[in-house]
Amino acid sequence: MRFAFISDIHANLEALEAVLADIDKKGVDEILCLGDVVGYGANPNECAEIVVKRCKSVLLGNHDAAATNLLTTQHFNIHAKIAIEWTAQTLTPSIKSYLAALPVSKTTDLITMAHSTPYEPGMWYYITSLEEAAFNFQFFDTKICLVGHTHIPMIIALDDEDIYVHPEKQISYKEREDRKLLINIGSVGQPRDRNPNSSYGILDTEEKIFSLHRIPYNISKTQAKMKKIKMPDFLVNRLAEGR
Ligand code: ZN
What is the pLDDT of residues 186-208, one digit of tens each? Predict the structure, then answer.
C-alpha cells in the first residue's frame, strides 16, 4: 500500500490543490490528513469539503478545535486569534459539526497518527527537540508515528538506543527490525522551515520507505485572498518566506 499524509492545510486552497495534484500524479492508495484543515487561510469550507471527499481519515487539529469552540484561543497569539474568529464566523454549520467530531489520534498495525504528539494528543504539545522526541517515542508501539503541528518537516529515527534527526528526505526501515520513526510531515498551507513550498509525506509499506515531498503553489493568489478578508499582514507575508 502507498499512503499520502497531509497536515496543517490551514484553509489554503491553492496549496491543497497543488499537493493533491502531485499526490495524484505519483499515485497512492489512500490519503490521510493529520488535522488543522482550517485557520489562517481564506478558504476553510472549500478545503474541508475537499478533505472530506479525498481523505480516508482525518484527525482534529488545535485550530479546527478552536474554530469549532472545542478549545479556547487563550493560548493562541493575536494573529491566530483573529484568524480563528473569522474562521468560526465563516464555517458552515455542517462543516463545523464535521470538524468537531474528528478524533485526536488514530492507530493502525503499522502507524500511530496524531496532530500534535502521541503523548496526550488532546493537549496540543509540540515536539521541538530530540529530548521531546525521545519522550514521545515511549508513547507509541507501532513502527512509525506521524505528526504535524510544528509545520516543520522532520524525520526522527530511533535505532536501538540511538536517536537522531535523519538528514535526508527519505528513510527505509526495510532491513532495520529495531528502527522506529517519529515523523513530522510538515505543513501544506503554511510551511515554517524557511521553504515556502508545501510539504507532505508518502509511505510505501511494500518498499518500506517513507519520503517527504515539497511542492510549489500560487502563493500570491493565496495572499491576495487573505488580504481581501483582512487577515493580518504578518500571516499574509509569512507564506512567501516559509516561516
Ligand atoms: Zn497548524
Answer: 999 999 999 999 999 999 999 99
